[in-house]
Amino acid sequence: MAQGSYVEPTYERDTRYINDRITKDGSDGWPVEAGRYRLVAARACPWASRAIMVRRLLGLEDVISLGLCGPTHDSDSWTFDLDEGGLDPVLGIPRLKDAYEKRFPGYPRGITVPAVVDVPTGGVVTNDFAQMTLDFATEWTEFQREGAPDLWPVGLREEMAPVMKRIYTEVNNGVYRCGFAGTQEAYDAAYDRLFTALDWLEERLTGQRYLMGEHLTCADVRLFTTLVRFDPVYHGHFKCNRQKLDEFPALWAYARDLFQTPGFGDTVDFSQIKHHYYEVHRDVNPAGIVPAGPDLTNWSDPHDRESLGGSPFGDGTAPGEIAAAERVPQANNPAVGPDGQLVR
C-alpha cells in the first residue's frame, strides 16, 4: 500500500472542496430527495464523524444511506475494504475515487470523506464537510425524525459562527498543524495556538453545559470529534502533549457528557481511529505500530454536568436505538454493549 506524505514545513490544509449543495429548492441541481443520496464516511476521520453524528441526531438514517470506508487508505483513495468483496453494496465500487472520477474525470485533488454521492449516477455531489452538516440540519427538515434537535438555530447563528470558526482553525485543524509540522518553529507556534484555544474552551465550559449554553448545537458536534481523539491519538501521535484531555476538568467532563449522549459516543470506533492515524501517517510513525493504550473505560465515568442546568435536546428527544448494520462493535468501544447501545 503506497502511503501519502503528510509532514510539511508549515502544514496548510487544502480547503478547495466540491461546494455543490443539496437543497429544498434544488438550486444547485441537487434537490432534497429521500433515498437518492449516499453519505460515504469513515469512522476514523473526524470530519466524516461529524456527518455520521448529525445524520443520526436528526434521524436521517432511512433517508440518506451510509457507506463506510475502512480506517486505512493509500495515497490514492479511501476504499470499501469493510464490505464483502471490497465493494460498496449500493454503489458497487471499490474506491471512493471512482465516484469522484465518475463526475469529474481526472479529479485533481485529494479524495476526502465525508462525501455525498448521487446513487442514480454514481457521481460525487459534494465533499464540503462543513456545509454538509448545516444542510442536513436546515434543508432536510421534512425528513428529520420527530423530536430532532435544532442544531443550527437561527437566533444563535451570529454568535455561533465565530465560535465554530475558532474551533475549526485552532482546535480541529490545530492538532494537525502540530502533528504534520515539519520544523520546530512551526510545531512550537501550532502547539501554543492549540493550547491557547483549549484554555479558552476550558474557561467557557466551566460555567455552562454546552458551547452555546443550555442545548446541543452543531458547535458541540464539531468540537467533540477532536476531543474524543485527543488522548488516543493527538496527545502522543501528534505531540499535543502539554496535558491530556482528562487533565482539563471542565473539558473532560464536557466530553464525557457528550460521549454518553445518544448520537455521540455510540458512533465512535476507537479501534478504527487508532489504526487510521498510526498506520496511515508513516512519515510521522514510520513503523506503523498502533499503541495498546490508553485505557478508554473512563469515558463512562460520571460527569456531573447536569448540575449546570440545560438539557441536550431542549424540547426534543434523543435518537432511538442504532440499526444493527450501523452498530460499533463492543470490542472497539468499551462504552457500548453487545447491542451497540451506550452503557450508562
UniProtKB/TrEMBL annotation:
The active site is at 45 (nucleophile), 176 (proton donor/acceptor). One of its GO terms (cellular component) is cytoplasm. Glutathione binds at residue 78. The record marks 234, 277 as: Lowers pKa of active site Cys. Residues 127-287 form the GST C-terminal domain. One of its GO terms (molecular function) is glutathione transferase activity. Residues 293-344 are annotated as: Disordered. InterPro entries: Glutathione-S-Trfase_C-like, Glutathione-S-Trfase_C_sf, Glutathione_S-Trfase, GST_Omega-like_C, GST_Omega/GSH. PANTHER family: GLUTATHIONE S-TRANSFERASE OMEGA-LIKE 1-RELATED, GLUTATHIONYL-HYDROQUINONE REDUCTASE. This is GST C-terminal domain-containing protein. It comes from Flexivirga endophytica. The lineage of its organism: Bacteria, Bacillati, Actinomycetota, Actinomycetes, Micrococcales.
